[in-house]
Amino acid sequence: MRIAKALEPNNIMYLEDAMLSGNAKTYARLAVETSVPVCISETLASRYEYREFFELTACDVIMYDVTWCGGPSEAKRISDMAETYMIPTSPRTCGGPLLFTCSAHLATALPTSSSSRATIGSTRTSIHTSLTRFRFLKTDT
Questions:
Q1: At what angle do helices 24-33 and 47-55 cross, to 10 degrees?
Q2: Which member of 83, 105, 117, 132 has the greatest number of CB atoms within 10 A?
Q3: Residue 112: which pLDDT band, with cuts at 50, 70 and 90?
Q4: Where are the domains positioned within the chain?
Q5: How far apart (Å, rounded) are the C-alpha atoms in residues 137 and 115?
Q6: What is the CATH superfamily name and number for domain 2-140?
Q7: How does pLDDT run across 40-59, given as a tens digit for each residue?
């Protein structure tokens, strides 16, 4: 809680994996007590594990790894469930170029995608451009 409070003035994108992700009630308490957006990340493996976080309003952003959560179909289901709670999603991958392409393709197809993150080899590349905003800009031209 103290770290989240200390980060509030910095207007960070979100606080990822502030605690172990096994306790949605603890995350719900954190989400209430800080203005920093809380991200539940790729350590959860299916939509069934994310459901309690959605129901308790325990997070502001969902991040999942396309390969760890059961593939693109399950990732899409997680995103669809998140959309019903108006929670943006952020696909990520630490695989190779094929998995990166899969995550990027999925992110562009999701109405609630906020950003994508990829780790390829030892180089970490973060893409924090809003893909939804990009689509609006693209259609205006």
A1: 40
A2: 117
A3: low
A4: 2-140
A5: 16
A6: Enolase-like C-terminal domain (3.20.20.120)
A7: 978 888 899 999 999 999 99
